[in-house]
Amino acid sequence: WLIRQYFKRVRAGDLHGLLDLFSNDCVIHEPFSTSKYLTGKIEIEPFLKSAIMANQEVQYEVKIEKESRKIDRNRVVAVIVFHKENEIKSKFTFEFEDVSEGVFGRIKTLKIEFVD
Predict the structure, then answer these.
(1) What pLDDT was estimated at residue 66?
(2) In this structure, are residues 97 and 106 in contact, taking their beta carbons and an 8 Å threshold?
(3) pTM of the shown model
(4) pLDDT in tens, 61-79
(5) Is the dihedral of CA 67, 93, 56, 89 positive or negative?
(6) 55-60, long-range: CB < 8 A, 24+ apart
(7) Is the separation of the CB atoms in 95 and 71 below 8 Å?
(8) CA 63/CA 42 separation, integer angstroms
(9) Cα 55 to Cα 38: distance, rounded to the nearest angstrom
């Protein structure tokens, strides 16, 4: 559910709703900046703003890798295939706060990687 909300809010341009999905001490590992990771909502906000702008009018598919949920229930991997001039495949690994069985907390870490 939380992962679908993440992509739904990116598509909708809902920056504040997107920020609400993250814990206050969240970390985003991303391949675009020189620092390689951003910590806390203040640091991730400009990145999320850029992600919203970059995803406008871009078609993409989200596929959840179910196997990873069996290994670690607080970790989910989503493979995203972006369709622009060509296909670009990326892997988003979400880790969540531990709340209770079957219920996700907020996003604690997000690691974004490009894959072949």
Answers:
(1) 65
(2) yes
(3) 0.84
(4) 889 886 555 556 788 899 9
(5) negative
(6) 55/10, 55/11, 56/13, 58/82, 58/83, 58/84, 59/83
(7) no
(8) 29
(9) 20
What is the separation, in whole angstroms, between the first and last Cα of the chain? 27
At 104, the pLDDT band (50, 70, 90 cuts) reads low
- On whether the CB atoms of residues 97 and 75 are closer than 8 A, the answer is no
Give residue-wise pLDDT tens across range 10-41.
999 999 999 999 999 999 999 887 778 999 99
DSSP 39-84: EHHHHHHHHHHHHHHHTTT-EEEEEEETHHHHH-TTEEEEEEEEES
Sign of CA dihedral 21, 44, 89, 66: negative
Q: Are strands 103-115 and 87-100 parallel, antiparallel or unpaired?
A: antiparallel
